[in-house]
Amino acid sequence: MSTTAVSLSMPAVPRRRRSPEEVAAAAPVTGPKRVLLAAPRGYCAGVDRAVIAVEKALEHYGAPVYVRKQIVHNVHVVSSLEERGAIFVEENEEVPEGALVVFSAHGVSPAVVQSAADRGLRTIDATCPLVTKVHKEAVRFSREDKHILLIGHEGHEEVEGTYGEAPESTTIVNNPAEARTVQVEDPDNLIWLSQTTLSVDEAMEIVEILRQRFPKLQDPPSDDICYATTNRQGAIKEIAPQADLVIVVGSANSSNSVRLVEVALEYGAKASHRVDFANEIDEAWFEGVASVGVTSGASVPEILVQDVLRLLADYGYADVAEVVTAQEDILFSLPKELRATMKAAGDPDYKGVKSSNLR
Questions:
Q1: Which N-terminal residues, if any, form the signal peptide (predicted)?
Q2: How far apart are CA 197 and CA 297, in angstroms?
Q3: CATH number reported for the structural domain that contains residue 275 in this entry
Q4: Claim to verify: residue 150 and residue 167 sit in the same structural domain
């Protein structure tokens, strides 16, 4: 009788975290330990608005509430909303006919809006108003027969949505290499737009390359990169030269979180790592480290940052100095479809966004 060998995977064994004493013995730290905590960090107004929109939809319409794509790019936020009854789908076709679907903060193309209408779906558009601004610019410039060079990462949901507003008039430019080779029919009739969550430096580098090739390239009427992206990068630029290590809290699919890691390294941090949760931090990162910079992407609730600070305190980094480089007081009203329901139900929050309880 023949037998077939079966390979069984071993159950996961929690890794034993080394003690502060063991880490110190591996590489002693010269100088006092401290944390430089970036401000601003975490939730921006657009993310707050989108998350609250799902929370309020669950409260007023009941579960399930369907959400096309991740409402924001953060695994903690998504899993927390799933526990409350949100169902995340990739496309409208996965939503039962007549059900309620929320469009994510990253925006959608007109084709997605039409497909929802074709299926009789009720919709709540939680697109960040700053992304909506870029969509309107794309429509306007297309109507003016301009060709749009859209600076952004092809495949990112925001870029797909903006491109979908005027596909015949838009060319996506992913990086400096593409900026050097992109071909256009009319180099005298160009304007550029950008994904809102890019690195400011990256976008400007691409614009300068394009301008050298196409001197008549026009600028959009206002900066497309959102205030929150700019402010978070500004804070980490201030911290990075002073940091032996920078920890960025944020998810792998969060463009602005990934950019923060890159900006930290570009501006002088000796090491920089991204984590979703404090338990992902490797204590080996602390070897020989006196100064730790901490920040978080624009879709990250503050509770996750506080978890990181508690872990750092356990390893002797209890001295926390907040580095404030900008003040933010921007609030966005909730989607109009939701405000009408909330007002009719006597919910006072319909007048404006109040911070999500996921923070």
A1: none
A2: 10
A3: 3.40.1010.20
A4: yes
